[in-house]
Amino acid sequence: MLKGRVALVTGGGVGIGRGIAMALADQGVRVAVCGRRGECLEQTVAHIQERGGEATSVIADVTRRADVQRVVESVVKAWRRIDILVNNAGVSGRTPMDDPDDARWLTILQVNLTGSYVCSKLVLPHMSDPAYGRIINMSSVLGRFGVPGYTAYCTAKHGILGFTKALALEVADRGITVNAICPTWVDTDMARQGIEETAAASGISAETFRVRAIAAVPIKRMAEVGEIAALTVFLCQTEAAAITGQGLNVCGGATAGSGG
């Protein structure tokens, strides 16, 4: 039973983050969402409240330690603890090696990887139940294999898997589990951005690339937000207490032949 637990979901204003926040709230979890776009966060909170759930939002940038500290303090002040942390905040984009500007590389690593580290570090002291705690990190199938032109994103998502394994061992004696989810294409704004950017770099239309990308997934479709959210909810259950340090693929079979 998750009723009464407290969760913080980063990047909770849209896409996978919103889906996870709503799914946890449906289980009776009190959910705080944070992100950089206040209007989107408010929409997530409104959706949760319309379904009878309890939620709050805080505008924050996970690359800024002070912002994360403010979020954590706000949640703890309201609900006294944090039981579940979902490190979902992420950005993507092409970072070809011939790009003279390193800004996007640095941003992608800071948001996806360092942001997960900082959030985990500041939340862990407030996981006060001696037999329970859940950290779920959002990796990707690009944490399992490489894609040309996406070196920063692949690096960050591979790093998330290493971070997950090491942190899981560090906090295992506290009853806290740490796992990562590795989705394939999911129909979100980030996926649409990736499709458009890669299509443009390949000199083809976005729709042509989309068709090819889906054809490369063995189940011949994108994953759904609800499928990622359902796995997250399961990992938060007491029945999943023996699952830790794992990277769980929701890939439609895309990693089955890669050794990932």
Folded structure, characterized:
With 260 residues, the protein is of the alpha/beta class. The chain is globular. It has a 7-stranded parallel β-sheet, sandwiched between helices. The longest helix is centred in the middle third of the chain and has 21 residues, at 103-123. The protein has one domain: NAD(P)-binding Rossmann-like Domain (Rossmann fold, 3-Layer(aba) Sandwich), CATH 3.40.50. The chain is built from 8 helices and 7 strands. The protein starts with 5 loop residues before the first strand and ends in a 10-residue tail after the last strand. The mean pLDDT is 95.
First-residue to last-residue Cα separation: 32 Å
The main sheet orders its strands as: 3-2-1-4-5-6-7
Uncertain spans: none
Strand/helix succession: EHEHEHEHEHEHHHE
Principal-axis shape equals globular
What is the architecture at the second tier of CATH? Answer: 3-Layer(aba) Sandwich
Determine Rg (CA atoms, Å).
18 Å
- How large is the share of residues in beta strands? 5-15%
Mean pLDDT: 95
CATH superfamily: NAD(P)-binding Rossmann-like Domain
| Structural class by helix and strand composition | alpha/beta
Estimate nothing, just give the exact number of structural domains: 1
What labels would you give this structure?
seven-stranded parallel beta sheet, 8 helices, alpha/beta, single chain, about 260 residues
What's the topology here?
Layout: E1 6-10, H1 15-26, E2 30-35, H2 38-50, E3 55-59, H3 65-79, E4 84-87, H4 103-123, E5 133-138, H5 151-171, E6 176-183, H6 189-202, H7 206-215, H8 225-236, E7 247-250
